[in-house]
Amino acid sequence: MIYLDHAATTPVRPEVLEAMLPWFTEHFGNPSSVHHVGLTASGGVSHARRILGELVGLPPSAVVFTAGGTEADVLALRGVFARPATRPRSLVVSAVEHPAVLETARALAEVGVALRIVGVDAFGRVDPSAITDAVDATTALVSIMHVNNETGAAQPIVALSRTVKQRNPRTLVHVDAVQSFGRYPVSFTRWPDVDLISIAGHKIYGPKGVGALFVRPGTHLSALLTGGGQEAGLRSGTHNVPGIVGLAEAARLLSATAGEDMARYATLATRFLDGLAARVPGAALNGARDEVAPYEKRAPYIVNVRIPGAPAEPLLHALEAAGVMASAGSACHAKDAKLSHVLSAMGLTEASGACLRFSFGRATTEAHVDAALDALVAALPRLKAAARG
Amino acid sequence: MILAARIAPEPEFAPYDVIVVRYSEIFLKGENRRLFEDVLVKNVQRTLVSHGLHGLHVRRQHARLVVEPEPGAPSAEVAAQRLEDALQAVLSVFGVSSASLAVTVPKDLVRIAARGAGVLVAAARDSRARTFKVESRRSDKHFAHGTFEMNDVVGHTARIASGLTVDVREPDLTLVVEIGPELSFVSAHTARGPGGLPVGVGGNVTLLLSGGIDSPVAGWLCQKRGCRLNAVYFHAFPYTGDGTKQKVLELARQLGRTQGGMRVTVIPFATFQEACKGAVPARLLVIVYRRAMARLAERVARAEDSAAIASGENLGQVASQTVINLGTIEHAIELPVLRPLLTYDKNEIITAAKRIGTFETSILPFDDCCSLFAPRHPATRVAPADAVEAEGRVRGYSELLDQAFAAREIVDLEG
After folding, report:
1. CA terminus-to-terminus distance, chain A
2. Are B22 and B96 in contact (CB under 8 A)?
3. How many CB atoms lie within 10 A of CB B185?
4. Which pLDDT belongs to residue B317?
5. pLDDT by residue (tens digit) across B271-282?
6. Which helix (H) or strand (E) holds A293?
7. Torsions phi, psi of B65, nearest 5?
8. How sure is the predictor about B258, in pLDDT bands with cuts at 50, 70 and 90?
């Protein structure tokens, strides 16, 4: 099997699994207990908190563990707007946000939050001037994702967040870094105008069902889950100790090799895109080509291409029959034949052709990339003929 | 006899120790009755096992079936719990007209009244019932008390014990008392089964099963009239993904539960569809596909010893489903085509699918026919001769069907 769907999820690294295992059995305690069994578990969580805090340049207390990326995003949005003190009640998001942000924003709009959605260019990138127009004295929060899960488009977070603060210093900035954390250097030091960052374990070779929201000290949120008061009252519920340990270990390991990983992904992307251009006439990249560090325009590990005249879903099935696992748009919508909101926002239509996403990971080799191209080239004549009719 | 009405013993709470199963139409079948009863016993047994209910025994008992714990149950309470769990499974078996969760009684009117009061009190506790009536039946004519007296004594006792009032016309609960030559019982918990005939007495039928809402219901209705199903599924990979195939197999597994499993023949269909597209006028594509499916299903039917094929086709649900077109499809084969849903409205089909439990699976989001091969304006009045002419335009028509049939995959699902 050739797995080119790492943006959907990644396998847990053996070292991460190894690190997690004792926390299921030997050190099974509840971190909230006062006896030594609980203290041991509490120590595991604290250690994980320190590692993650150091990686993003914040004190350990700024790390709020959640049950995944979606919960981290929802906590950021609802946590801001649920505060009685949040009086300027407008929210700005980009049109290409993950549904965790976009649908939450729409739900907030139904209860009175003024929602402004800023568009993107043909490469899927937000123009800082659009942010200038959208942010005003009423804006409580701007939420912009770093690397897009469908296209790999990377947003200029430094410039965008600076623009926000210039317009309104009190506006908070949230960045969904689920697809970029562990690959790009994601930190509050590099992003001095960012207040909240979301990450998820299963995109970085860690476990599913765990994530974190990093909260810059001084940023005030309301809790979504109330109860025992864990995570400084921001997220009640007994800690997922093995998951938290796994998240931190996965983040530590992946961040350590981020630079060389990215260079390898860039080589793979170049090989794939050059091969595609040579072998599949009319095929094109949905996004900007950028295979040179620091990869400001597009993440080299996500390649979204359109193939005119071919049907997307049958193409995916044909690739799978050849052993290649890819995706149409994001996995959440792969069963939906309609064009995703992200690709629509970039100005594409269903007539643009099949849009397929190939996302590379640590195990991806040049041979995998070549095999994917071979499978694509082999499947196309038949499917194009069927689509012509 | 009036004297007897004054006897009001304390209610006796005994655990359920039997399910009494009634069947109806089987009586009509004369000398076949014994065969039908044997099939029904076997089907009830198989259904219990397929629901993971073990330690229960099914036997025939004087125009009833009896489900009872096998000897050696850990305790009477455990056995009673097993019977309670088994009732729903029993009620899903075709041929069962009703079933009662019951407590057996000795042939002693005072004890019968006491246990009858006990089951009524227990049933009233689990519901918001306020009224009841007693329904007595006596097939053992040696029993000294008539049904009038039984109703009187049991009703009096049960009324005092339960505090419910008697309503003979629309009672919330019915307390059934049956005195048979071998088996006597009381029950306040009788529910209707699906009726129909036991699966297997009606011969084999090959069902065209898709991932949609209709075809599973059509199959269920064939089973209801005693037919044992096998299924054929046309898989248009890569235009249809393997998710749809999994869904079809799940539907077959659900239908197979009352007949001890099901065989599904999966026939790859995309190559044939590709060959038709371009060769056949677009408006005739649907009829050419349907006739090819009928032909391949007929081959499966022969291999599976089926006397007919069955489909979820309906009059007018989609534009191409006209009387003329259905006739032209049927014209391609010799075996009869059963269409149990022919005259149903879509909402009737959906209601039935929900009742039999296939609806939730059917609406899972995998498309069951790729729109690439569905013309926008299919012909509504295709004569057989026109279909034959269109098929003649497909290069290597019969070889393509041979190849599709040869490439079939047989999946045997356990019950």
Report:
1. 32
2. yes
3. 26
4. 86
5. 999 999 889 999
6. none
7. -105, 150
8. confident
Q: List the single best residue of B370, B373, B376 to mutate versus A (max A Cβ within 10 A).
A: B370
- Chain A: residue whose CA lies nearest to B277: A389
Closest CA to A234 of A23, A52, A82: A82
Contact residues on chain A for B273, CB-CB shorter than 8 A: 386
Contact criterion met (CB below 8 Å) for A306 and A322: no
Nearest to A13 by CA among A264, A255, A250, A361: A250
Domains in chain B with CATH codes: 3-192 (3.30.2130.30), 204-414 (3.40.50.620)
CA distance A313 to chain B (A): 7
Of B238, B243, B273, the CB nearest to A321: B238
Q: Is the pLDDT of residue B325 over 80?
A: yes
Quick one: tokens of A213?
A: 């929201």
What pLDDT score was predicted for residue A237? Answer: 97
> E strand or H helix at A345, and its extent?
helix A341-345
Find out whether B217 and B341 touch, Cβ atoms under 8 Å: yes
The reported pTM is 0.82
The complex's ipTM works out to 0.78
Signed CA dihedral, A19, A21, A22, A27: sign only: positive
- Whether residue A331 has pLDDT greater than 50: no
Q: What pLDDT sits at residue A334?
A: 44
> Which among B273, B274, B366 has the least Cβ separation from residue A335?
B366
Residue identified by tokens 């600076």 is: A162
Q: Which of A242-251, B293-302, B362-371 has the lowest mean pLDDT?
A: B362-371
Residue A355 is a catalytic residue? no
Cα distance from B243 to chain A (closest Cα, Å)? 10
Set of chain B residues whose Cβ sits within 8 Å of the Cβ of A320:
238, 242
Q: All domains of chain A, ordered by start, with CATH?
A: 2-8+258-388 (3.90.1150.10), 14-255 (3.40.640.10)
Closest CA in chain B for residue A313: B239
Contact A314 B370 (CB under 8 A): yes
pLDDT (tens digit, 9 = 90+) per residue, B208-239? 999 899 999 999 999 999 999 999 999 999 99
Q: List chain A residues with CB under 8 Å of B364.
A: none
Interchain pair A314, B238: CB under 8 A: yes
CA distance A59 to A382: 57
Q: Does A321 touch chain B (CB under 8 A)?
A: yes
Task: Give me the mean pLDDT over the A174-200 stretch.
Answer: 98
> Which residue in A109, A225, A331, A332 is the catalytic one?
A332
Q: Are B236 and B373 in contact (CB under 8 A)?
A: yes
